[in-house]
């Protein structure tokens, strides 16, 4: 069954606990936390303190996506705060292999994210060291962008290569395009605005889970 991970970037920032509980009560599988440093992407959001407070109320895994330069300086901070899955970007400088191994050593799921313009070959040597590959289906940094449908091929190619870990997508995913992503091999869908603005998120979540 597809896992649904609501992105707290789309939640009401003045009512984050209420929004988090609402998504969990609706039946979400994970909570997705985008961390942005205003350098790697032109936006800023969330911190280890946010993750720590979410961990106090969350009954589902926290899926933390580090859209930042020099994430090696912050791995321990986010893992100590309660990140269950920690994802770094393939495009950053530094020893990606060592970072992924450290996340695993600390007991977390190790994730590697690919921007739309980043080829699979960039991640190929690192695939054995990952538990999750995050295929960005929009340019990272801001919500509300439309799905880049050419990324479906990237997902299906990863499955054709034999990747058995989680394949996650983030950006522009809606109820009317999720089935295509599932058919390509997606196992975790990050969703934002549509879920948080739904008048009945539990009914919507049930429909999404029924897709696959």
Rg over C-alpha atoms, rounded to the nearest angstrom: 16 Å
Helix and strand element order: EHEEHEHEHEHEHEHEHH
| Proportion of residues in β-strands | 15-25%
Q: Whole-Å distance between the termini?
A: 5 Å
Number of domains: 1
Instruction: Please give the CATH class.
Output: Alpha Beta
pLDDT < 50 stretches = none
In short:
The chain has nine helices and nine strands. The protein has 212 residues and is an alpha/beta fold. The mean pLDDT is 95.
How is the topology of this model organized?
Layout lengths: L2 E4 L9 H11 L4 E7 L6 E2 L2 H10 L4 E6 L7 H7 L3 E5 L6 H10 L3 E6 L6 H4 L7 E5 L14 H10 L5 E5 L7 H7 L3 E4 L1 H4 L4 H9 L3
Parallel strand pairs: 1-9, 2-4, 4-5, 5-6, 6-7, 7-8, 8-9
Antiparallel strand pairs: 2-3
Helix pairs in contact: 1-9, 2-3, 6-7
Question: Can you describe what's shown?
Answer:
- The model has no long low-confidence stretch (mean pLDDT 95).
- The protein has 212 residues and is an alpha/beta fold.
- The protein has a single domain (3-209), classed as Aldolase class I (TIM Barrel).
- It has a nine-stranded mixed β-sheet with strand order 1-9-8-7-6-5-4-2-3.
- The longest helix is centred in the N-terminal third of the chain and has 11 residues, at 16-26.
- Helices cover 34% and strands 21% of the residues.
- The chain is built from nine helices and nine strands.
- The protein has helices spanning 16-26, 48-57, 75-81, 96-105, 121-124, 151-160, 178-184, 193-196, 201-209; strands at residues 3-6, 31-37, 44-45, 62-67, 85-89, 109-114, 132-136, 166-170, 188-191.
